Amino acid sequence: xxxxxxxxxxxxxxxxxxxxxxxxxxxxxxxxxxxxxxxxxxxxxxxxxxxxxxxxxxxxxxxxxxxxxxxxxxxxxxxxxxxxxxxxxxxxxxxxxxxxxxxxxxxxxxxxxxxxxxxxxxxxxxxxxxxxxxxxxxxxxxxxxxxxxxxxxxxxxxxxxxxxxxxxxxxxxxxxxxxxxxxxxxxxxxxxxxxxxxxxxxxxxxxxxxxxxxxxxxxxxxxxxxxxxxxxxxxxxxxxxxxxxxxxxxxxxxxxxxxxxxxxxxxxxxxxxxxxxxxxxxxxxxxxxxxxxxxxxxxxxxxxxxxxxxxxxxxxxxxxxxxxxxxxxxxxxxxxxxxxxxxxxxxxxxxxxxxxxxxxxxxxxxxxxxxxxxxxxxxxxxxxxxxxxxxxxxxxxxxxxxxxxxxxxxxxxxxxxxxxxxxxxxxxxxxxxxxxxxxxxxxxxxxxxxx
Length: 451
Prior knowledge:
Order of helices and strands: HHHHHHHHHHHHH
Number of helices: 13
Number of domains: 1
CATH topology: Growth Hormone, Chain: A
Mean pLDDT: 78
Strand content: under 5%
Number of strands: 0
CATH class: Mainly Alpha
Distance between the termini: 34 Å
């Protein structure tokens, strides 16, 4: 059974422009007539659910290990960590662009996961030689690796989803698929808390690598489903060679009004999230004196965040996406962040834990499925290269700028409540830009590409 498709990709193969096959008018929005999962979609939804579960569980098993290092050294070290992460991310952009340009998705997607799987395994002997290497040096390298790991494996996942499903399906299915990530993000901290004292960091690395291996199996299963149920008008997506230049994603981000808005939206969201992360790091370090206590604290934060994220995806995101489209969830996320930060400016102290839980849950449970659904309506090069550039390099550039600015403001004597109120402005701006980005996509005149 072939799927209905509200759009077809631009016939220009490997084009650098974010072209829409059939831009929508306000009266012609791609909203599903029924929110139900169709019979032929169940297999793909189940495998995509499992795929995202494996990806985020692999990350969240190791995230508390990374974050306890941040708590140990304090937020003043974050600009250096993020600067090195940004450089490492930029260094990976050309080889990833070359991979996308030369091979079909059924090749370059699993190869990306294989690279991070092998890289994770490579840390096992390094942690066994920790005394010789030095805990601080090894921890710093590990922080950078896990930060790059997280960005790439998640960005590639959503690029693949946007390539596998059409826009109508994205509104119905993305919130359900995202639940797999929420469950994986819950399972990860639970595994860490259960296994940390038994197998140590080396054992956690093995668990993470095995989960990435399972994700590769899911990629092949979904590629086969995509061949059996192609998007009408682009039946050979799985065999398509995208082509184009290595740095096409960076160029398109600057050229396209839609991509510029999405990049700015990412930067504003990152500004909010990074400030909250820095405040949480300092609080964790202040109240927890040992590595085990810091890991447990972070695992508890992650667990609470991801339970709430799942509830939001079930009760809020899918309803808004199906009935109203992506602009409402995008705006709602900014409003949630602004309100929570304003409350933190008033209450301060331990309230940062509640702020971190609710804003992260909103970012990944409300914002992310809505933002990634926008990429179902652009061409393949934008879907993989531009999205990957925004989700990795732009994001890490924002981390460097925000953490440096955060430390600079504190050096000038600016109090934490004032910094929180300044961040409220960024959150409110993200709500506005999220709304206009989705409207730009939907209100484009018929047959005029966004470029």
